[in-house]
Design brief:
The protein is mainly beta. Helices cover 9% and strands 25% of the residues.
Length: 126
């Protein structure tokens, strides 16, 4: 497995409603784009975040042509590993490095999963 950096593909937008009061700070939104899962992620979910390899960072940020054909594809499964983690990883209120520690001897129904490709990304199970 190659352990190389990646980034998540997303969009950024700032906007303010036309009828917003003067001085309203507006709203910033940051959705993460998803793709069909690769073979590894398909074992726990029907989609995965768009993960961009380092060589694709610039293409994502500045390419004018159709990004769909160019970049909207699953990250290579061979560049990832996955291990079972505790159910707490599925709650956004929980934080801490212990969320990605391997858990052994627990029924798969009670597990979340972590995928690793240099940085750790949690993937919530269905």
């Amino acid at each position: 497995m190659k352990r190389r950096p990646f980034a998540f593909g997303g969009l950024w937008e700032w906007w303010r409603a036309k009828d917003a009061p003067e001085g309203d700070k507006g709203l910033e939104t940051f959705p993460i784009i998803t793709t069909p899962p690769n073979a590894l992620c398909a074992t726990v979910h029907d989609r995965m975040p768009l993960m961009l390899a380092k060589e694709d960072f610039w293409k994502w940020l500045v390419t004018v042509e159709d990004r769909t054909a160019l970049l909207l594809r699953p990250f290579p499964a061979e560049d990832m590993t996955m291990w079972p983690v505790g159910k707490a990883v599925g709650n956004v209120k929980n934080t801490g490095a212990e969320l990605v520690e391997r858990v052994e001897g627990v029924s798969p129904i009670h597990l979340g999963f972590v995928a690793h490709a240099r940085l750790v990304r949690r993937i919530r199970s269905c």
